[in-house]
Amino acid sequence: MFQTTHPREQLGQFIPIHYHGQMLANTERMQAFKSAIESVVRPGHQVLELGGGTGVLSCFAARCGAQVTCVDANPEMIHWAGQLLRQNPGGERVNLVLADAMDYMPEHPVDVVICEMLHSALVREQQLRVLDRFRHLHQQRFGFLPRFIPDTTLLAVQPVQQNYDFMGYHAAIPLFQHASTEHKDTMGLGDPFIYSVIEYQEPQSLLQKADIVFLAHATGTLNALRFITKNLVAIIPEEGRSIDWHCQYLVLPFAEPLQLEKGDRIRLRFHYMAGAEITQLNQSLLVQKLPQGDINQLFQGMPHEVRTAARAQA
Ligand SMILES: C[S@@+](CC[C@H](N)C(=O)[O-])C[C@H]1O[C@@H](n2cnc3c(N)ncnc32)[C@H](O)[C@@H]1O
Fold first, then answer.
1. CA nearest ligand 1 atom 15, residue
2. Minimum-distance ligand 1 atom for the alpha carbon of 49
3. Which of 35, 49, 72, 94 to mutate to test the pocket of ligand 1 (most atoms within 8 A of CB)?
4. Cross-strand bridge partners of residue 193
5. Distance from the CA of 114 to the center of ligand 1, in angstroms?
């Protein structure tokens, strides 16, 4: 086993091999990362993948002519990746390393870092912690920053009415939803609001928080929040476009549903650390219907960003 200075719960998830099968079969995810890698990686590049799993993304980078180092903390995945890379063209250009991505720093600088430890709302996985630390150390040691795949993650939240009836069995529990499918059991009651923009080339705080006022654009029961996680896997300025991929939506119920009329204003607050368990986010949720009235009086005492966001919607 390798040496690490971090407790097991900070390592990120040790995902069993059958879930890696689901990730490989997720064509939207695979296509986005493959296209991003092909747009960014050039022959002769040094590429580092942090959290390489089966080695698939490292192999895509190797096929672009890069020399690749693929790091994973799970010995089982290093074993699988070793076997799979031997069966795949390009695999011979991938060097596997069993290490904690939170501690790992290569001896030579790298041109591109790939890290897909993404999770809805950036909970549970250590994507942000790993990349923020890597960015800092790489800059300090080599004096420049590599490109990151993904480039940016946008976190948004939307108030919704969620049907929690499962064939007559009521279960208001966290749900995951495929992002590009219609969900007839979920009704949006307000517009999504972006509460965090994470550019991996910039210093980042682990603390994710929101204090927002929503305007209800429909009448209904506000009983959950939908968390939207959009990844700009690569930005291609010359073509004026980005290659995007959404993590699954996370729909979190809260204890006391609110009846809303169209035009009601709702104040919503939450905070959590990126990489924390979903319960930390759930426990911090505060949702409150604001009294009708003069908008300026209503917002007295609220932080400046909340007033601005609320006025923009009013
Ligand atoms: C979501 S999977 C992605 C695997 C692969 N990159 C892909 O796209 O198919 C994340 C991987 O990160 C690894 N991982 C989680 N925490 C880690 C850490 N602290 N250091 C290194 N690897 C880690 C897991 O073992 C897992 O294989």
1. 12
2. 6
3. 72
4. 157
5. 11
Give residue 314's pLDDT.
Answer: 46
d(CA 117, CA 122): 9
Structure tokens at 239: 């073509």
Per-residue pLDDT of 67-125, as tens digits, reads 999 999 999 999 999 999 999 999 999 999 999 999 999 999 999 999 999 999 999 99
Tell me the whole-structure pTM to 2 decimals: 0.91
State which of 4, 8, 15 you would mutate to test the pocket of ligand 1, scoring each by most atoms of that ligand within 8 A of its C-beta.
Answer: 15
Pocket of ligand 1 (CB under 6 A): 11-15, 23, 51-54, 56-57, 71-74, 77, 100-102, 116-117, 126
CB 182 within 8 A of CB 249: no
- Cα separation, 182 vs 135, in Å, equals 37
Query: Which ranges of 41-180 would DSSP assign to H, the alpha helix?
Result: 56-63, 75-86, 127-142
Q: What would the pLDDT profile of 173-189 be if each residue is shown by its tens digit?
A: 999 999 988 899 999 99
Structure confidence by residue, pLDDT tens digits, 201-223:
999 999 999 999 999 999 999 99
- State the Cα–Cα distance between residues 151 and 30, nearest whole angstrom: 16
Looking at the CA of residue 130, tell me the nearest atom of ligand 1.
19
Return the closest-CA partner of residue 130 out of 45, 248, 220, 6: 6
pLDDT at 14: 74
Q: What tokens appear for 140 in the block?
A: 């300090």
Mode of pairing for the β-strands spanning 112-115 and 46-50? parallel
- Which domains are assigned to the chain? 8-116 (3.40.50.150), 152-313 (2.70.160.11)
Give me ligand 1 centre to Cα 59, in Å: 15
